[in-house]
Amino acid sequence: MKSNLRFALAVNNEHIFEPRHFGDADKYLLYDYREGKIDFYREILNPAKDLQHNVEHGSPEKARLLTSLFRDEEVDVLVSKKFGGNLKRINQYFIPVIISLDSPEEVLEILQKHVRWLTEERRKHVGSFQLFQINQGILKSSVRQDKPVHRKMFFDESERN
To answer: Which of 113, 132, 108 is nearest to 122 (CA)?
Structure first.
């Protein structure tokens, strides 16, 4: 049975959010939101991790591979500290969420509190999904087509100390 929402969290081998772009994560932790709670579904290795990028930022080959993987896995939401040039390709299929925290558990708590925003975004999907940024709360904005996005664009790094 399809969950209400399925999340893919981009993490490293220590299960901490990957500080690089979503497509450069070691693996992805998949979680399902169903019946008011978020539960672990499964872990998958990143098959695109070692693909060489084109000279231009964001490899179309990597975008195609990850889009296919996450569509097959019925993922709705991609969660990462940073998205690169492929954001404009993948936000046609998935809701991108930029986070500032390192711990998946902390991020899942915040996602749980604000899941209605993401559910509504998926329900009204037309064209491309909006970009969400999560620190202690949640903020929604349009995806810029001209450059990569990452948490430093939205969060004051001095607040983390």
So the answer is: 132
